[in-house]
Design a protein that fits this description.
By secondary structure, this protein is mainly α. It has eleven helices and no strands. α1 (3-21) packs antiparallel against α2 (27-46) and α2 runs antiparallel to α3. The protein is globular and about 55 Å long.
């Protein structure tokens, strides 16, 4: 069975949980775990030894950390309001609408984003540990580490901020959030660009051996900045938090940089 078919079957199996709980937002915690599944199923499909492929360990560490974080957040905070807004747009049975627009769509997009991972696992046959690591791959590993730290530290700082009752209704502008409005999204993008580079270790950097799978990190970066990530979240925050407009004015939107001074 193809990796896309596997991913869609998993999403179909998870959909009844959203019907039972009337809340599909748990799917966010499944998203990172899906990449681990794509890595394992790709390796098994061609009989490669995934344990010697650096990309497998990168995906495993990133996916388990983020999946646990998102599941814990869902258990603590409950349904995500973005999914409530999505359900309100249903023009037919809401659960079938969620099946199509959340579960099936996310399955397809996860498969698309994971193309560099699938390619890396197929190329893993015959590897010795880090045998093919070249300059591009080492740069990718460094990029992955930077992204993982940004995402992990940013999530931790935001969780601590939210846990303080005195911060209710306030805008998080401390720590990494002082230098970018979305350290977690920036980190996520770096992680996937790093995985792409490491997965193509030893290959021609511009052509061959899955160069076309660059559409995975390109799509993820686009969705984080223009579609369901930064753009959607900021529209909601601009409406719900009056101080957010000032935060937007003085803080870089995605790539970290020094904040502008506040108006006197």
């Amino acid at each position: 069975m193809s990796q896309l078919g596997i991913m869609l079957l998993v999403m179909l199996a998870l959909w009844p949980i959203s019907v039972w709980r009337n809340d599909p937002s748990f799917i966010d915690s499944i998203w990172p775990l899906g990449f681990i599944l794509m890595a394992l199923s790709s390796a098994v499909s061609v009989g490669t030894n995934y344990l010697v492929q650096p990309v497998f360990w990168m995906v495993l560490v990133w996916g388990l950390r983020l999946g646990l974080h998102l599941f814990t957040r869902w258990m603590h905070e409950g349904a995500d309001k973005r999914y409530d807004a999505l359900k309100a747009r249903a023009r037919f049975n809401v659960h079938l609408f969620v099946l199509v627009t959340v579960f099936v769509l996310q399955g397809i997009l996860l498969w698309l984003t994971s193309l560099p991972i699938q390619n890396a696992m197929v190329r893993a046959e015959g590897w010795a540990p880090f045998e093919r690591m070249d300059g591009f791959a080492l740069a990718g590993l460094a990029l992955f580490i930077v992204g993982f730290l940004f995402e992990t530290i940013g999530d931790w700082q935001l969780a601590r901020f939210k846990a303080n009752p005195d911060n209710a209704g306030k805008v998080m502008d401390q720590g990494l959030w002082r230098y970018t409005r979305h350290p977690n999204y920036f980190g996520d993008a770096c992680v996937f660009w790093g995985i792409y580079l490491v997965g193509r270790a030893g290959a021609d950097p511009l052509w061959g051996d899955g160069a076309w799978t660059i559409i995975g990190p390109i799509f993820l970066t686009w969705t984080l900045t223009r579609w369901s990530g930064k753009a959607l979240l900021e529209r909601n925050l601009m409406e719900s938090r009056p101080d957010y407009a000032d935060y937007v004015r003085r803080t870089p939107g995605f790539i970290p940089g020094f904040p502008k001074r506040r108006d006197p």
